[in-house]
Specification:
With about 220 residues, the chain is mainly alpha-helical. Helix content is about 60%, strand content about 0%.
C-alpha cells in the first residue's frame, strides 16, 4: 500500500473501506467525497490515484491504433493452364485401317465365292462409309464387275461410268472401260463397244486391258 495522507486515513475510517480502495479509488463518487474533504480540511489536496500499468494498457484511448495480428495468408493457388481439346488425328489409326481393310476384304470374299449380290452390298456399304478412301475406286469397280457376272449389263455399265466420273485418275479406269465395252458387246451395241475399245487402246496403250480390248475389237463385226 502507498503512503496515505491524514485525510485519506480518516476517509477510510468514515467510509469503512480498506485504505487501498481510498488511495486507488477514482470513481466519480470518490472524487466528490475527496473534494468535500479537501474543502473541509482547508484546501488540503488529496492525491489522485495513479492507474496501474496494466489498466493503462487495457484502456486504449479512442484515437489509439490497436495492433491487430495479420491473418494467416493462404498459399497462392496454383494456376493450371487450360488444355485445348484434342484435335482429330491427321491419319487414321492402325485400328481404323484394320477395320476398313476388313470391310473391303469381306465384300471381296463374297465376290470370289460368286456371291455377287453379297459383294455388291458389301462394296456399296464400303463406299457409303469410306467414299474417299484409297480403296474406294476398287470397290466401285468390283460393283460393276459383279453386275456383269449377274448379266445385268446396263447396271454394269452404269457402275463403271460412275467410277470414271468419280475417280478419273484411278488405276482401275482401263479395267472399267474394258468392262463397259464388253457389256456393250453383250447388249449387241457393237458401235458403242468399238468406240469404247478404241478409246481404251488410245488412252492406255501399254495396259493389259488395252491388249484385251484389241482382241475383242478384232472380233466385232
Amino acid at each position: 500500500m502507498g503512503f496515505m495522507t491524514t485525510t485519506e486515513f480518516e476517509l477510510s475510517e468514515v467510509l469503512d473501506l480498506p485504505p487501498e480502495q481510498v488511495i486507488f479509488g477514482n470513481s466519480p463518487v470518490m472524487q466528490r467525497i475527496r473534494l468535500k474533504l479537501e474543502q473541509a480540511a482547508g484546501g488540503l489536496t488529496i492525491p489522485a490515484p495513479v492507474a496501474s500499468a496494466a489498466a493503462a494498457t487495457s484502456a486504449a484511448s479512442p484515437g489509439a491504433v490497436t495492433a491487430v495480428s495479420a491473418p494467416a495468408v493462404a498459399p497462392a493457388a496454383t494456376t493450371v493452364a487450360a488444355v485445348p481439346p484434342s484435335l482429330p488425328p491427321a491419319n487414321l489409326s492402325g485400328v481404323d485401317q484394320a477395320a476398313i481393310q476388313r470391310a473391303y476384304d469381306n465384300a471381296y470374299s463374297n465376290y470370289r465365292i460368286n456371291d455377287y449380290q453379297g459383294a455388291i452390298r458389301g462394296f456399296d456399304g464400303f463406299l457409303k462409309t469410306y467414299p474417299k478412301h484409297q480403296l474406294a475406286p476398287n470397290a466401285q469397280y468390283w460393283i460393276g464387275e459383279s453386275y456383269f457376272h449377274l448379266h445385268d449389263y446396263r447396271a454394269a455399265i452404269e457402275a463403271q461410268r460412275r467410277l470414271l466420273g468419280t475417280y478419273p485418275d484411278s488405276a482401275k479406269v482401263p479395267d472399267a472401260l474394258l468392262v463397259i465395252g464388253t457389256s456393250e458387246t453383250s447388249l449387241g451395241d457393237s458401235a458403242a463397244a468399238r468406240k469404247t475399245f478404241e478409246e481404251l487402246i488410245a488412252r492406255y496403250p501399254s495396259t493389259e486391258s488395252a491388249e484385251k480390248a484389241k482382241g475383242r475389237l478384232a472380233k466385232l463385226k
